[in-house]
Amino acid sequence: MSVRMGGSWMQRLGYTALALAVLAGPVAAQTPAxxxxxxxxxxxxxPVTVANVVRRDVPILLRNIGVVQAMQNALxxxxxxxxxxxxxxxxxxxxxxxxxxxxxxxxxxxxxxxQAMAKRAQDEAQLANARLDxxxxxxxxxxxxxxxxxVDTRQAAVRGLEATLKADDALIAAAKVNLDYTLITAPFDxxxxxxxxxxxxxxxxxxxxxxxxxxxxxxxxxxxxxxLPQDSLPAIRAGMAAGKLPAMAYSADDKTLLAxxxxxxxxxxVDVTTGTIKxxxxxxxxxxxxxxxxxxxxxxxxxxxKGALVVPSIAVQRGPANLFVYVVKPDNTVAxxxxxxGQDDGQSAIITSGLEDGMQVVVNGxxxxxxxxxxVPTQAKPAS
Length: 384
Hints:
Blueprint: H1 2-30, E1 46-52, E2 54-76, E3 82-87, E4 94-95, E5 100-104, H2 107-142, H3 148-181, E6 183-185, E7 190-192, E8 202-203, E9 214-229, H4 233-242, E10 246-250, E11 257-266, E12 276-283, E13 295-312, E14 317-318, E15 323-328, E16 334-344, E17 348-353, E18 360-364, E19 375-379
Helix pairs in contact: 2-3
């Protein structure tokens, strides 16, 4: 009995499955096939800023930190002893050569001059009398009314008094010089420093350890002294032989041009401890933007390289083994390209190998790039 029941259920299940299959057939035939899964997209293009590789004339510059020095600098001292009566300058004043700076009490030196002139007048009167005596003796000697010894004696007296007058003239000249020294004048055009002594103090010419009266510095023109490696000396000497080498002085941040000038000279010896040589450049300094003791960034142009390949300095990247740039290809992908530099002044880099005129290089956005990456380039704005 259970077998029959099972067969009955089995038959029913079979009929049910058959009916469902018949009903599902048309529905399944009408259901569209599921769409295929899309392939994963590549990484998005990287927005970058690009600049062109160009050819232009580039100055070859040597650079180092320099110190501004006055063209001339002097400590004003008194050349005679006495009391400082007056200071005739203002601190920081611009003065010309010969302008009065200070006055030492002139009265003692005026008195010495007067004394020397009075002594000369006395000796001159004695000489006049001696010449009269000599003339009378010569007249008497013609008639043999006086001995020759008397003539000789009076001739010697005249010569002695003539020598005395020359000595008097020398004393007068020395007294005038000392009197002139009481008025101290500027030895050259320059700028006065801070006063080192006040009126009323006694100054002495022999006191070379004293502080002096004031300092004066010539700042127009002015000089900058800096050092360069000895390896650059041949190029410097060659440039000096061809003409004047331009020099530039920049501010401490190396961004602001303070003054332009020219190289005056190199030192006569290379410093054996550092392997460098000192150079001195001259600047007109008309606007007084350079001041003695100031530190500046000095640049010396040794030549002008014609038609050099140039890219912005920020385009050059440093890799583990070499320098490289990212070159943008026509299909807007980038190629990592090794390069060699001839000079990099912080703004423009001279490329000696690796690039050609007209290429485009990435100047901003390199950190997100790798070789072959797709980019969306934007042309960099020209430097103002």
